[in-house]
Write a structure and sequence with these properties.
It contains 3 helices and no strands. By secondary structure, it is an all-alpha fold. The radius of gyration is 13 Å and the shape is globular. The termini are far apart.
Length: 90
């Protein structure tokens, strides 16, 4: 099984791999969910920036990108559904 850093490297290269069995609640999607929904793949520049922030342990910055990826996925997967994500910092 891939480590998260290996998954991230492949994702930046454009190879979106889902870590683990998709039926297992401990499995992990790529940051932009493109392993499960290919049309969600982010541009290479965004993938590179996310990796840079993650490896530099800039948690708040890469977390903002995760929320952006989540928003995009919801717009594609549930376009007519209103969703409110609570818990973000002001």
């Amino acid at each position: 099984m891939l480590t998260y850093k290996e998954q991230l490297e492949k994702w930046v290269e454009g190879k979106s791999w889902h870590m683990g069995d998709k039926e297992d609640e401990k499995s992990t999607c790529c940051p932009d969910f493109s392993c499960c929904v290919p049309e969600l793949q982010s541009p290479k520049e965004e993938r590179e920036l996310f990796q840079e922030l993650y490896l530099a342990d800039k948690h708040e910055e890469y977390e903002r990108m995760l929320m952006m990826f989540l928003g995009r996925s919801l717009a594609v997967l549930a376009p007519k559904t209103k969703v409110y994500i609570a818990g973000g910092k002001g």
